[in-house]
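Page 47, continued from p. 46.
Same chain as before, 75 aa.
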Amino acid sequence: MSAVWTAIATLTVITFAVKAAGPVALGGRELPGWAERLIVLLPAALLTALVVSQTLADADRIVVDARAAGVGAAI
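Result:
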């Protein structure tokens, strides 16, 4: 097996372990009310952050160009 496939297999196992850690650690427990309310809001906040950063970011500066007009028209 080449070094590339070894790295892919290793990273696959690490990714699986990281994603499984939450359910394994919290399995069967009730989350506090504040945590549930926070978790419900996370997808919308993350999607908004991704759209804004992809729309207005150009390397290391903020740029308002046609992408911003496209997002504005879509909204």
